[in-house]
Each structure stands twice: as structure tokens, then as C-alpha cells.
Amino acid sequence: MEVFIPMADDKIVVSDYLKNKFGGKKIYHGVDVNFFNPSNYDKRKVKQELGLNQDYKYILFSGLPREHKGIEELIKAVLNINHEDLKILIVGGDIHHKYYKKLLSIGGGFIKAVGPRPHSEMPSFLAASDMVVLPQRKTLFAKAQVPAKVFEAMAMGKPIISTSISDLPEILDRCG
Predict the structure, then answer these.
(1) In whole angstroms, what is the distance from residue 90 CA to residue 62 CA?
(2) Geometric angle at alpha carbon 84, from 78 and 89, rounded to 5°
(3) pLDDT per residue as tens digits for the range 106-133
(4) In the predicted model, what is the mean pLDDT of the chain?
(5) Distances (CA, A) of 108 to 47, 76, 95
(6) CA distance 59 to 106
(7) What is the DSSP letter of 57?
(8) What is the pTM of this model?
(9) Number of H helices, E strands in the chain
């Protein structure tokens, strides 16, 4: 295994877009696979501890809900499927924020919002979830970033659905 230790004048970027724009070395986020380890979690027990319904299937969206992240499209897709046992679990963000309130009004009973949680709880939320969705819109911001949550979901062995943006197609290539 090769380890890169950046020097003061090294540019570190997380996506091909940023590398092409600014140069430097591309380094993906790292994940502690001992911490994000699915064998450490019992899904039924974790769902109970988190107050989640055992009979529901949860699509996890974690992070700060913002327009460029495409969560409105995810909500509309779930509403279109219209299965009462399918829920979007939103972990993170300020539930009192105007945009967050808009999402809750659109999604109604199909959203379980828990608000901000310590990062140390993310393995539990991933363990309780049935899949992770990264529905980012094709914006400049989304092209330039690679969400660390994709690597956490991969470490936890979760199915991932993502839009084809940034380096996500390359990262998820041949993963399932």
C-alpha cells in the first residue's frame, strides 16, 4: 500500500473536476472500516434503539439537505412508488430551516427526519437503512465534490443509488 503524505505546497483535491481545474493529487476520503463495519451491528436491534419501525424499508439520505443534492427528486420518486412501508430517513440538517420544512411538506408521511446527529452515530443509521441514495443535481458544486458518505455506505455494505455526477460513476463501477 502506498501512502501519500502531503507537503505544504501539494494541492490535494477530491475529484477529477478539481484536479483538472487546479492540478494536484486526487485523494479520496478515507473511512475507518473498523468503525463502519456491518458485522458490529444487528439491524433489528439498531432499528429498535433508533425508534424506527421494523416493518419499514428505509432509504437513507444523510447530510445537509440543500437544493443541489437532489433530495426533492428522491422524495417525488418515493411518492410516485407510493408504498406505505417505504420511507426516506433524513439524518442531518436543521429541521427548522426553510428548505428542510419544504421537503417535509412535500414528502409528508414518507419522510422520517431525525435532524442533526453526531457522526459517531452514522454506522447505526447505515445499519438500520436498506439503501443509500445520492441524488445530486448536475450543478457545478456537485461536479466538484465527492461525498464522504458514499465510502461510509460502501464500508457498511449498503446498496447505493447515485446520479452520474462527479467521480461517483468511477467509484461505484462494478460494485453491484
Answers:
(1) 6
(2) 55
(3) 998 999 999 999 999 999 999 999 999 9
(4) 88
(5) 21, 11, 14
(6) 16
(7) E
(8) 0.87
(9) 8, 7
- pLDDT band for position 1 (50/70/90)? very low
Q: Which three cell numbers stand for residue 125?
A: 443509521
Distance CA 61, CA 160 (A): 11
Long-range interactions of 107-111: CB distance < 8 A, separation 24+? 107/75, 107/78, 107/79, 109/84, 110/75, 110/78, 110/79, 110/86, 111/75, 111/87
Report residue 12 as a C-alpha cell. Answer: 490535494
Q: How far apart are CA 148 and CA 118, in angstroms?
A: 15
Residues ≥6 apart with Cβ < 8 Å to 162: 133, 134, 135, 136, 150, 168, 169, 172
Sign of CA dihedral 65, 55, 82, 164: positive
pLDDT tens sequence across 17-32: 777 778 888 787 789 9
Q: With contact defined as beta carbons under 8 Å apart, do 104 and 113 qualify?
A: yes
61 in Cβ contact with 84 (< 8 Å): no
Positive/negative CA dihedral, 49, 151, 155, 80: positive
Output the pLDDT for position 176. 61
d(CA 120, CA 124): 8
